[in-house]
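Explain my protein.
***
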Amino acid sequence: MTTAADIMHSGSHWIPADETLDRAAQLMREHGVGALPVGDPMDENQRMVGIITDRDIVVNCVAAGHEPSHVTAGELCQGTPHWISSRASVQDVLREMEDNQIRRLPVIDENRRFVGMISEADLAHFLSEDQLAKFVERVYS
């Protein structure tokens, strides 16, 4: 069975909740990513408390008239983060992303530590064209 660990992009990066959004944007640029999981810096296991995207920074910080060097990642991330176990099946990954209409899904290990990220591009390598078309239709509807 193909698992989330098999399809995720490993070596992904995260940002502590107390780090500023200008630093988050710099990390996104350096690593060529559009999203970063946000971790609790006070938790020794660095558990995820949210996720921020480049769009979040632009729309909810810059366009709202805030200074990215004065707003933290923890202040920007909202709601309960969605994630998937590294042991989950591809069907479980698809269901989580489709049900919540999300395009990026953090992957955690058995200790709830962030270990990777699954994006649409990662799924494209493992799904048939029909499966991918159905996924895109459900996520963007």
The chain has seven helices and seven strands.
